[in-house]
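Lecture notes, unit on protein representations.

Consider one protein chain, 128 amino acids long.
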Amino acid sequence: MTIPQRFILVDDNEADNVYHEIMIRRAGFTGEVRVFESGAEALDFLRSDPLATPTCLFLDINMPQMDGFEFARQAQPLLQDKPTMLVMMLTSSDAPQDRLRASGMPVIQGFVTKPLTRERVREMLQQG
C-alpha cells in the first residue's frame, strides 16, 4: 500500500467522524477526507469511484442497518483487486471475537480501537 492520498470515514457517529477528521488533519494530512454515516452510502460511493486514489477507509463495526462486517462483505468484490484501498476497522469494540472476525475477512487489513490518534495517522502517512 502506498501512502494514503484520501481517507474515508464510515461511521454513524457524527461526533466521532468530526474528531477523527481533526486527528487526520493534525497528523499533517491535507488531502481529501470523505465521511459517510452509513455503510450503504459508502458502498454507493465505492461503486461509482474508480478506486485509483490510494485510500485508507476507516470502518466502524456498530452501525444501524448495515454493520461494518456486512459492509466489508459487500465491499469485498469491489476492493479485492484494488491495492490502492486499505480497509481498517476503527471501532470502540475491543472484543476478541470482533478482532478474530475482522482478521478472517480478506478485505480488512487492520483493527484500530477508537479513538484514532494523530500518531497512528502519522504512522500510516510515513509508510509506503
